[in-house]
Structure formats: C-alpha cells, structure tokens
Write a structure and sequence with these properties.
The complex is a heterodimer of chains A (338) and B (319). In chain A, strand 9 and strand 10 form a beta hairpin. Chain A has 13 helices and eleven strands. Chain A has two domains: 132 residues, Periplasmic binding protein-like II (D-Maltodextrin-Binding Protein, domain 2, 3-Layer(aba) Sandwich), CATH 3.40.190; 155 residues, D-Maltodextrin-Binding Protein, domain 2, CATH 3.40.190.10. With 338 residues, chain A is an alpha/beta fold. The longest helix of chain A is centred in the first third of the chain and has 15 residues. In chain B, helix 5 runs antiparallel to helix 11 and helix 8 runs antiparallel to helix 11. The two termini of chain B are 38 Å apart. Classes of the chains: A alpha/beta (338), B mainly alpha (319). The interface between A and B is medium-sized, with 33 and 30 residues.
Chain lengths: 338, 319
C-alpha cells in the first residue's frame, strides 16, 4: 500500500513538473451559476495541480464589463452579449460557451390553497401586467379547475436588482404576450407595470412568504433549496410542465437541434412536449485570442473538462446538464481559441 | 503656574520650527478633505455626462419614468421617495428623541442617565443592514397586520392613508429611519442640554419658574443650536441610508400620495441597479442620481445653516 502511494506521489510530481509555474486565471460574472462554478474550479484545481481559477460572482453585467475592459481572463453571463456589446470588445472576438442550464419558476403564497397551481403563459403575463388583478379571475380559474381561489387582490413581487433571472422571466413573457413585449420588453431590469421589488432571490422570497396572496419568480435552485412551492407553466405544446432537471434538459434538447454557431440562443418557450418553457443556458464568455499562449492552453483544457467531467456535478447542485449535441458542437468551438 | 510659564518661555525658541511643521501638516489635512469633496463632485459630473447629454437635465429631474429597456430615465420618483421617507422619519424621531434627551439630562438620576446613554450610543453603532433585517421580520408583519389596517380604518378618508396594505412602503421605511436616527438625536441633544450652565437653571427657579417651565423656556432654547444640529445629523443619515430602506420601502419607482404605498429612494436604486446596469446611459443615469442626492444634501444643509442663523439672531435680540 505504502509503495503504491509513494509511486503515485512520484507520478504526480513527474506529471506536474512541466506546470511547475502556477497558472492563475481570473474570472467574474453571473451569480446564478456561482455555486457550480465555485465547485468546478475548486475540483479542477485539485485534479490539475498548479492551476488556480478565481471566480468572483459580481453579476452578469460585471462579467460582460470584465471581458470588455480586459480586467479578467474570462467572464460569465446569464444573458448572451448583444451585438452592440460584442462590438465594444476591442481586443478581438468574444466566444460564448453554454455551461449548464437553469430555470425560473413562479412562486406564490396563497393561504388555504394546498393544490399545486397551473399557469398558462398568457395568464402569467397578464398577472404581471396588472390586467388580471384578482386571484378569483376566471382565466386563472380556467387553468385550475377544482381549486378554490380567494377573491383577493394579487400582490405581484419582482426582482429589483438587475439580474439574469429577470431577463429570462421577461424574455419568456415577451415571447408569449405581444402586449408585454410592446409595453415592458425583456432585459435584466425593466420598468415594471406594478408590484413590489425585492433585492436578490432572497428578497423576492421574503416578500412572497410575508405577503398573503402574492406571486413572484425565483430561480429553480432557490425554490428547491428553500422548499418553496412553485407552479406548473404551460409550454408551447400546451402541456402544464413542472420545472426539474429533466424538463429543463428537454427544453435545451429542443433548442440544440437548431443551435446557432455562436451559441447565443434563447430557449424560453422552447418546443417539446415535456420542455419547461422558462429555461435558459448560462454562458462563459471567452476571448478567442489570448496574448499568453500558456493561458490559452489552460483555458482550453479547463473548458474541455467543464463540458465533460464537470457535468457530473450538476445533479447534486440542481442544475441541468448540457445535452450531448451541444457539448459536441462546443468542443469544435474550443479549437478556435488561440 | 509660574513653573508652567517658565517652561513655555524656555522652550519657545526650539518649538518654532515644530509650530511651522504642525501648521503645515494640519493645513494639508484640511485642504485634502476639501480636495476630496471637489474630486467627488468632479467624478459625479464626469460620470453622468452621458446621461445629461442624452436625456437633458430638466427631463431627468422631472420625468417620472424609469425604464432601462427604452433607456428613458427620470429622477422624480426617487427624489420624492427619499424626501418623503426622511421627513416621515424626522416627524417621528424629533419628538421622541428630544423628549428622551430632556428626560436624560434634566429628570433622570445621574446613574440611570449614564447607563441609558451608553445603551443608546450602542444603538447608534448597529449596522443598518441589521436594522433592515429586524424590520423585515418583525416591523413589516406588525405594520401589515395591525398598524396600517388601523390607520386605513380610522384615517382612511385622507388620501395619505389609502390603498392596498403591503406592510412595506413609505411609512415603514420612515419608521425604520426614525428608529435609526433617534440615537443620534438623543445623544447629541443630551450633550448640549447638559452643557447649559447651572446658573441659567438656578436663576429661572429663583424667579419662581416650575421645573418644566425652566426646562422648556430656559434650558431648551439655550441648547437650541445643539438640538438643531442633532436633527440635521439625523436627517443626513436618513437621506443617505441605503440597505435598511431598500429592504422595506417596496422598491417601486412611482409617486403615490398614500404613505402606505410602496416607493423607492435614490440610494436604494443605486445599490440595486448599479452592478448589473448595462449599456452606457443606465450606469450614467445612476451616477447622475448620485449627483442629485449630493445636491439635495447640500440644499438641505444650506437650508439648515440659514435656519440656524435666523433663529440665533432672533434669540440674541432678546435680553
């Protein structure tokens, strides 16, 4: 036993000798994938000695700003960069790499209602627009036969800080409601027609829990961790789907078939019978050219690991792993990094 | 006495250089503070240039729209929220704070006064995020379940107390700010009340004034400057408070007459939106909001100065 471990240690020393100079990579960006990124980069550091990746979760906007100004080696965002943002990057082309998938779910607080509520997409949009103002509205009742809904005003709760979660939510509402698209639109922060604002997922959760008859939206991971009830949402195939790892992956699979070459794709309201409609990729933003070839090598190795070995950590943290077709397509893009 | 004078005389020559050095050092410190203020204004003006040229100053100040999607920004709802919550806070905290300060300096036995003052100064040192958390978990439910329905029921004929009851909103934010400003008002007011010379009180009592007449007509007017100072210190804290306010104000950028309605404040929106503000105009508009808050503070401080000057000259004319 002892000799084996000694031999292993010797092997390790030999294997890591060429990388003796520690490679340090700095990254920043989205908060939504922060738990899995932290896990990945720590695991990667353990299995690849001499590599140290620092990730600072300062928000998707911070990630875009970081890669634009060149203050970090790579960034992360819950929202693909716009053409305008891409044009502002002076140092060269910026590549998008989807890493995991997440979902946003409607959470509500209805005292006396024990059944799981169902929402058709147009109803959700009208609730957040304020067109539907009471829980007893007949359109909500039509989605939920047999549920006794209170004759109370709906208290709408939304995120007040700019966030990728809000982008996914408003992107979905814009796709399913022309009125939402023209009046509000899709962005990380929007001008809300009505409602209370909470900072972060925790703020929204707090307001929903405290205000009876309220409805809000949070990331799936957050709802699961806090054991909050969340509703089913009707997808484009007309099925009420509950968000979980399987239904989110299904949404990605539908989108994977016609994935654009730059991976900047929205998968809200995706086709597929079991696809959860408010799902999204989250991306790493990687420059196509590094001035330091050693850094480029290291980033490529890290990306490859994240897309293959790294994906096994998804399930334990309630993220949905990437569909295989997307991984294969991404592997090709890795080769483009210099 | 003589020895001290001698010592000063003896050491006069060698300290001359020390004096000069000390003079320069303290001047440098004073000037650097001034430079810091100037630099702050410069940064705010430069940082907001984009928003000012795209939106126009008057549009920014008086528009009620805040729409990051169409990049149309107006500061009015935030200025309104900041002013309303601060005024509500003072309406609550001034009577409470002043009353408590009078009790501590005039009525309470010295031991109790010192012990209570120590506790009150501890309150002033609690970080605002803790006040915010306490407010979310205790104050907000109390407001939603008891205080606000009661106000709506009894005073609901006034536009001030109408609309849906959420528990969060202008009134709750004002109340939290009041709780946060009271320690400042008590502590500084008590100090200035204690500084009123004993002879003033004795003279009033000798003329036959009661204890309360002495306090209200002699001691409080004598300490007026310090008390006003404490109020403006509290107001400054209320205007710039961020975390506690954003946790209870409701974060809704619109103007409502009702104090039960949700609102938004300048400091809160900067804290919430700055890190994720995309494009060029949105961050710039947030910096311009910072400039507006800066100007608001200067205006209010200037007003405070004027008030102090006016009241002291009136006082000095009296015998």
């Amino acid at each position: 036993m002892k000799t084996i471990s000694l031999a292993l240690m010797g092997l390790l020393v030999v294997a890591t000798a060429p990388f003796a100079a520690a490679q340090k990579l700095n990254a920043c960006g989205a908060t939504f994938p922060d738990p899995i990124y932290k896990k990945w980069f720590s695991e990667y550091g353990k299995s690849h000695q001499g590599v140290q990746i620092n990730y600072e979760a300062n928000g998707s906007g911070g990630g875009v700003k970081g890669v634009t100004d060149g203050t970090v080696d790579f960034g992360a965002s819950d929202m693909p960069m716009t053409d305008q943002e891409l044009a502002a990057v002076k140092s060269g082309k910026m590549l998008h790499f989807p890493t995991v998938l997440g979902a946003v779910v409607p959470v509500y607080n209805l005292p006396g209602v024990t059944q799981e509520l169902k929402f058709s997409s147009a109803v959700l949009a009208d609730v957040f627009l304020g067109t539907i103002s009471k829980w007893s509205d007949k359109r909500i009742a039509a989605d939920n036969p047999g549920v006794k809904l209170p004759d109370e005003d709906i208290v709408v709760v939304h995120r007040t800080d700019g966030s990728g979660t809000t982008f996914v939510w408003t992107d979905f509402l814009s796709k399913v409601s022309p009125e939402w698209k023209s009046k509000v639109g899709a962005a990380k922060s929007v001008s809300w027609p009505k409602g209370l604002g909470g900072a972060q997922n925790a703020g929204v959760t707090g307001l929903v829990k405290q205000n009876p008859n309220s409805i809000g939206y949070v990331e799936l991971l957050f709802a699961v961790q806090n054991k909050m009830g969340y509703g089913r949402v009707k997808n484009s195939a007309g099925v009420f789907v509950k968000a979980d790892v399987a239904t989110v992956t299904e949404a990605a699979a539908g989108a994977a078939r016609n994935m654009p070459d730059d991976f900047r794709v929205s998968i809200t309201n995706a086709p597929g019978k079991n696809a959860y409609p408010i799902s999204s990729f989250t991306w790493l933003l990687i420059p196509s050219k590094f001035s330091d070839p050693a850094k480029a090598r290291e980033v490529k190795a890290m990306l490859h690991w994240v897309l293959t070995d790294g994906q096994v950590y998804c399930a334990t943290l309630s993220y949905a792993p990437l569909p295989l077709a997307v991984v294969t397509k991404e592997e090709k893009q890795i080769d483009a990094i210099q | 006495m003589a020895t001290i004078a001698a010592a000063v005389k003896v050491s006069k020559a060698p300290t001359q250089t020390g004096d000069i050095a000390a003079r320069w050092v303290v001047t440098l410190f004073a000037v650097s503070l001034l430079a810091l203020a100037v630099l702050l204004i410069y940064e705010l003006v430069i940082g907001s240039a984009e928003a000012r040229s795209k939106l126009g100053i008057w549009h920014f100040l008086f528009s009620t729209k805040w729409n990051p999607v169409t990049e149309d920004f107006g500061a009015l709802p935030f200025v309104y929220g900041t002013v309303v919550t601060s005024v509500l806070a003072l309406l609550i905290s001034v009577p409470f704070g002043l009353g408590a300060a009078i009790f501590l300096s005039e009525l309470a036995p010295a031991g109790i006064s010192n012990a209570l003052t120590f506790v009150i100064e501890l309150l002033a040192a609690i970080p605002s995020v803790i006040y915010g958390l306490l407010a979310i978990f205790t104050l907000v439910p109390l407001m939603r379940l008891y205080v606000e329905p009661f106000l709506k029921h009894t005073l609901g004929f006034l536009p001030l107390f109408q609309g849906t009851v959420y528990g969060v909103g202008f009134l709750t934010a004002g109340l939290v700010l009041a709780i946060m400003t009271i320690p400042f008002i008590i502590s500084v007011s008590r100090e200035s009340l204690m500084a009123v010379p004993r002879e003033q009180r004795e003279a009033a009592l000798a003329l036959g004034a009661t204890k309360w007449e002495t306090t209200w007509q002699i001691v409080v007017p004598y300490a007026k400057l310090g008390i006003l100072g404490s109020i403006f210190l509290g107001l400054a804290r209320a205007l710039g408070e961020t975390m506690a306010v954003t946790m209870v104000i409701g974060n809704d950028p619109s103007i409502h007459a009702s104090v039960l309605a949700p609102g938004y404040s300048i400091a809160a929106v900067i804290a919430n939106e700055f890190s994720e503000a995309g494009g060029k105009i949105h961050p710039s508009a947030l910096v311009e909001l910072g400039l507006v808050l800066f100007c608001l503070t200067i205006l209010i401080n200037g007003f405070a100065r004027l008030m102090i000057v006016a009241t002291t000259s009136k006082g000095s004319r009296r015998p």
